[in-house]
Design goal:
5 helices; seven-stranded antiparallel beta sheet; mainly beta
Amino acid sequence: MLLKHLQQSNLTMDALDFVEVGKIVKTHGVNGEVIVELDNPAILEDTTEPVVLEIEGLRVPFFIEQAKAVSAQRARVLFDCTHTEQRAKTLVGCRVFVSPDLLDSADDEFASPTAIVGFNVIDKKHGDIGAVQSIDNLNVNPIMVVGEKQTLIPFHPEFVTKIDFRKRQVRVSLPDGLLDLNG
């Protein structure tokens, strides 16, 4: 079923062109709906662009027929080819990716801290600091671990001025001395 869906799709995509935003955590009901866990479910509600699911290591495009935020971090989604519970079960555990254009057109509030792992961090004064290696303290105060020196930079609107998903960059304006604290 999923292979047929991939073959019918005319979309081509580079793995770097899509940004991970969440994961399918369970099915919902018997009509093929799934629950997607992500930082901001609203990004799935009105999109007409395909989302990409990673299935057995392959990225497969799916169109959303319906999506509704059911909590602050979950959305109930019906994809175009999953109208049965059995088909929906095959998607549980799949990672969900969206086009950077969708995120770029949205407010920065839609950006998940985990979506920027691998992005280059560029400071207004100091230039390229390095790539985001990981994000620590996701639930409280997210901290970017950046570069080989593992520089710690708060993922906060006070410091993060722009996230460019197309260029895979996080632009920051750090206060004097912050980089010195990291030794």
